[in-house]
């Protein structure tokens, strides 16, 4: 057969119709062909736009796949509108507005076709077409790999999209293809995507990898069913569902995903069966919005590479996990927001670095017959409206078994906590909860630890071998009638039984364990009852000094000129704002929270105290008192205690100033899972919720404070300005010593002022240098040396007792 010719074998039912002819062009051969004819194309490049409208076979020569190139300069290279057969062709397109291979009608069969193009789509199926496409490849770095549109369907077997500038395979407009053992990779969009009502996608034994978007994206009421598929090495989420999408994953594997392995929103529904999710950077399952639901059965979610919960359920969504395993993750299950719900049945949550189950913001979780082990916290019900049920669950090898805080009210039934490092069950900060037939064994702390007068209910519970005691009920601010736990028929191997607490008129339970061997009789009262004096009356009253009086004290401080200007400017803004409001005018909002930066001993605490007094004198703060804290006062030793400590410090400062010294210590550079971040997050929320009740000042070294302000996006926005406290110069340090001498009735002898100034000039300004503190320590050292000198005199004069000399200066070390 000559180069560039087409040999056509005409076939039919009658022997006389079998004949062979040769044609100079493909178009001519197709025009002459009848149904059933075979068109064998000689090797070469054909610059023709072919349209197959009869049930013919169009093929390249046997044994030479890819030797026939259909490559017109524009338009669609090959259009199929009949139940034809196309074999071993190489199709090339250059038209960005048209597909390279378009299948519009019939049930054609395509095999061994290679599409290398820069077209809108490599292969496009539309309308009533139902092709069978086998062992075909698409390389289209400019557009979609395979598009199935407008009601099109068909089966794709062992096909491969080796590159796509957009989605690898896209289904929309009611398209419904089936993919069998296909591979999609190196797509710039999603690997597989289906969108629109009546659009459907079925994939069996397929692999999607190395894509820049999501591996699988189902949106806009589309449906999909994937069986025995692999999705991995994406740059976005592994699987994404949005807007009433429905997806079923059976026996699939999703792994090596830097974002969410599966993310679904907006009333989407996902069913997973025997599917594994591993090595994900954010959430393994991320479920959002009312009506959104995921049902997972016999699935495994593990080996997180990020710092996020494995399963995240929020904004009113629902998740059901049945016979699943979640392990080797930072947190296993987080359920947030009112209306959100998680139901977990016969599942294992283990090797969890932080919290296995966290329920907050009014959400609900129900766990039945589950096993939690090797976690920092087994389950944490965090706040008001949050609750649910733990039934027939075991919690083993945790720091704390179950935590209930801030008004949360779960029901815990027939659960056992084994070997916690701290408490088995811990309730604080207004938490409630009902615990029935629960058991704690081998606790290194308490079995049940209920503090703050929480109204927890304990029924028929038991503790065994708890190092600090079976039950500890510590009173809090809520002591009084009707507060404290309600306990009935609870026992301990230490005490035999724990009787129901006395009538509400008696004191709250304080300690519910006793020396071994006896029954607990009358319940002891709270610690310190009748021993400590009543707290002073802290009700706000009229300030003892005006703002001008306090500013006068500020002005009297040595140095700090720029600081004084900043404070006075803030005071002026607040005072003028008050007067404008009194005059019925708009007043600018002044953020009062401050950042103090500078070295130790530069007067930051003193200025903070005066600032609080100024704000009280202006009526901005109720009291103006100063509460000074540092990291050790805010950060607890175990999960849950940090938020509580931070809240307590904030409450102490209510009406005044909370001064956090060395605040940068809350976010150390090698923080990892440091609890300091929890203190920062809690503080930011409190500052927002109670913005008029407390002024917060954070202080520390300049460079470290700059880093601190970048840790939490909400931190920097809460502070109005940064005030820098410069180091004191030698003259200012001299003035501090002179003030100290005058206050303590000493005088500087001749030449001492000059000697002090020289001393402070040459004094090393290393890390131990304390500015004003150094000046005071210098004065104290001079007084000590003076005492050692004067003590030797038999009858010292007044001058001897009061004059300090240069020889009293400490030696430079």
From TrEMBL:
InterPro entries recorded: AAA+_ATPase, AAA_lid_6, ATPase_AAA_core, Beta_helix, Carb-bd_sugar_hydrolysis-dom, CbxX/CfxQ, CbxX/CfxQ_RuBisCO_ESX, P-loop_NTPase
Bias kind Polar residues: ranges: 493-503
Entry keyword set: ATP-binding, Nucleotide-binding, Repeat
Presence of keyword Zinc: no
Region (Disordered): 472-548
Residue ranges annotated for the Carbohydrate-binding/sugar hydrolysis domain, each copy included: 41-172, 313-474
Annotated Gene3D superfamilies: 1.10.8.60, P-loop containing nucleotide triphosphate hydrolases (3.40.50.300), Single-stranded right-handed beta-helix, Pectin lyase-like (2.160.20.10)
Top-rank lineage group of the source organism: Bacteria
Keyword DNA-binding included in the entry's annotation: no
AAA+ ATPase domain: residues covered: 590-730
UniProt-listed Pfam families: AAA (PF00004), AAA_lid_6 (PF17866), Beta_helix (PF13229)
Family designation: Belongs to the CbxX/CfxQ family.
Protein name: Right-handed parallel beta-helix repeat-containing protein
Organism encoding this protein: Streptomyces nigra
